[in-house]
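Hi team, as promised in this morning's meeting, here are the two structures we talked about. I've kept the exact order from the run log so nobody has to guess. The first one is mostly here for context; it's the second one we should focus on when we meet again. Sequence first, then the predicted structure tokens.
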Amino acid sequence: MSPESTGQNEHNLTVYRRGFRTWRGNRPFWAGLFTMLGGAPIAYFPYADLHLGNMTLAMSTTAGAGSLIIGVLLITLGLTMWFHSIVRVFAGVAAILLALISIPVANIGGFVIGFLLALIGGALSISWAPGEPAADEADPQDAPLSLDKRQPESGYASEGALHGAAVPQQPAGDHDAASGYDGGTHRAG
């Protein structure tokens, strides 16, 4: 190895950080994190004891098992959002419903903290959409094929336009009978 090579001398922490950033960007990371953080107080508070000097204040309720189940399900849904992002909409709806159910069951939704975190996490999961690959990374083999195999005529888009390049278009109301261009997005046959 020579000292001029740049790829070999990166610090391991930088490599892990970039790998984590890539992993985080391909899934609803923040939705899963908020959902898991919302499940923790919902599951914890019914079993917690607060000690004030010689006095012990127990916050357990009759529905302690219900709040434990809700908290564990919210944590499971958060992990599902991370590792199976294809079901993110289902996981988000389920997280919102469990957060709403936690209000009467689990000490006002983990004293509102768990309720709000799970609600935000579910909403983020529903609204998250996977990103499109960059244009330079797109495979030209994946480009949509045209049904018309003729070469582009005048008035039609160039070959570069079929692969995502910007092409100026005529105004929508214009109609050019010679080229078959009708101002829409369809090619005349």
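And here is the second protein, the one for discussion:
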Amino acid sequence: MTKHRCKWCIGDPLYESYHDNEWGVPLHDDRLLFEFLVLETFQAGLSWITILRKRENFRLAFDNFDYHKIAQYTDQKKEELLQNSGIIRNKLKVNSAITNAQNFIKIQEDFGSFDRYIWGFVDGKTIKNAWKSQEEIPATTPISDRMSKDLKKRGFKFVGSTVMYAFMQATGMVNDHTVDCFRYNEV
């Protein structure tokens, strides 16, 4: 029997695996939340499949998304990243990963964890939508608008509302699997 999946992932084994195993699963681990934050910021203006194909390279290049290490990156490390063809070599995005790591740590200090801070925007619970088609799914919501505005106020970069809504989808803050998808009731 064929599994019914969200339309956006069909046809690429990497995309389907990501959809089936990760997308929309509620995440509460700060390191993983930081990984998705970095990946989503690098995705801005690109397709998610481009980022997924480079994900292992990003993990290697960015010390497995250890935000304490990233917050301390030197100019030499930045230059090394900009020469790394395995990742997206965008100076502003590389700089933003470092700035965002520093601000991520500040949020942990202020809230006890990034998880507590970020999930506070949805009162600690996944928002379960009931979309019948991919076309119904919004690119932003009032919550992603508020999240984006607050993160920017705290010094984060590349965290526009569209990026933050994609982050919410990826980390299970919203369940945007379509109702006919086999994952809809599983996550």
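Starting points for discussion:
The longest strand covers residues 127-128.
The mean pLDDT is 96.
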